[in-house]
Design a protein that fits this description.
The chain has 339 residues and is an alpha+beta fold. It has 5 helices and 12 strands. The strands form 2 sheets. Strands 2, 4, 6, 7, 9, 10, 11 and 12 form an 8-stranded mixed β-sheet that branches. It has a 4-stranded antiparallel β-sheet with strand order 1-3-8-5.
Length: 339
């Protein structure tokens, strides 16, 4: 009578063996993609200095008694070293060929992972904290929505600001001199203490060390320290076909509103300057404005906490970065890419 336990275990053993072969083959393929060309170049030198420790690949792979296509002799598992100089160079060419194929497989693998969104674009974008933070009562002052730290082009930005409406008011939001040329939302709510500006630009996006997205003009209406917070709903989206939010932790900006009130002359002067420079020139000729009159629902609600990446996600991230390392190594070695 057959043992049912052995019958049950055999398929599992075969499955684990198959998975093991795939994992070992994957590791071997990436090792060859990275070091295979060097191994091919070193193979003849290794045979020259250590012939007893050099193995002929067909002799090792084929069954005993069959003829090795490189050494042209019957295969003896007790003697696997190549005996002919031509066999040495054929082994080196075989390693070189397999290495080139491995590099091609790694390239195709990296392209597939890129289509799936791996590696994810790092969060490097930041909003600039203005150096000046003291203004007089009822003085109009700007908060420039400037972005730094870009390592990849962006094509969409959303800035959500929160402030104490008892101490501050938003006079206006200007898009003058903005790198964006399409704006879909501009929201000002001085009752709740909220402002939003949303816009962007088409492909290929925007990329620079520092860029102005817009300018929010505040007016202090009560003395004291007031804080303007960039909300968690603020976004800086990369032009990576996945819309990855690359904004780091949103900052806060603190201002001191002094009890000294602006004089009537100063108030008239700044009102005139503000009207001429902002209200009279809010947009550039190439900007498209699609502002909606409807309020933004849930505008002050923070984003839901993100769950930690799964094991599969971490593995794909590691694989994509490994592939990138291999491809960049060869690209820089042959000066295809700059350092």
């Amino acid at each position: 009578m057959s043992n049912p336990k052995l019958i049950t275990l055999n398929p599992l053993r075969a499955l684990f063996g198959f998975v093991g072969i795939i994992i070992i083959s994957w590791i071997f393929l990436h090792l060859l993609a990275f070091l295979g060309v060097f191994l091919a170049l070193a193979y003849p030198m290794w045979w020259l200095f250590f012939p007893q420790l050099t193995t002929c690949i067909p002799c090792h792979a084929l069954t005993p008694g069959s003829t090795c296509p490189f050494c042209h002799r019957a295969i003896d598992k007790n003697n696997l070293r190549p005996t002919l100089l031509s066999a040495v160079f054929k082994n080196a060419l075989l390693i070189f060929f397999v290495s080139i194929v491995s590099i091609g497989v790694v390239y195709l693998e990296s392209r597939l992972l890129m289509q799936l969104g791996y590696p994810s674009t790092p969060k490097t974008a930041e909003f600039v904290i203005p150096p000046k933070g003291q203004y007089r009562l009822e003085e109009i002052f700007p908060l420039k929505l400037e972005i730094i730290g870009l390592t990849t082009p962006i094509n969409a930005v959303q800035t959500d600001l929160s402030f104490d409406p008892r101490k501050l008011q938003v006079v206006d939001i200007s898009t003058q001199d903005s790198f964006a040329n399409i704006f879909i939302q501009k929201e000002i709510d001085n009752e709740r203490g909220y402002a939003r500006l949303t816009g962007g630009l088409p492909n290929p996006g925007y990329f620079s060390d520092r860029g102005l997205f817009g300018t929010v003009y505040f007016k202090g209406i009560q003395p004291g320290i007031v804080t303007v917070d960039y909300l968690d709903t603020s976004l800086v989206l990369a032009n990576d076909s996945h819309g990855t939010n690359i904004l780091k932790d949103p900052p806060s900006v603190s201002y001191l509103i002094t009890p000294e009130k602006v004089s009537q002359a100063d108030n008239q002067l700044q009102t005139a300057l503000f009207s001429d420079q902002v209200l009279g020139a809010k947009t550039q000729s190439d900007q498209l404005i699609f502002y909606s009159d409807s309020p933004v629902l849930g505008a002050k609600t923070s984003q839901a906490p993100t769950s930690p990446p799964s094991f599969l996600t971490r593995c794909l991230e590691f694989l994509s970065r490994l592939n990138d390392l291999i491809l960049r190594f060869w690209a820089r070695l042959f000066h295809i890419l700059p350092d």
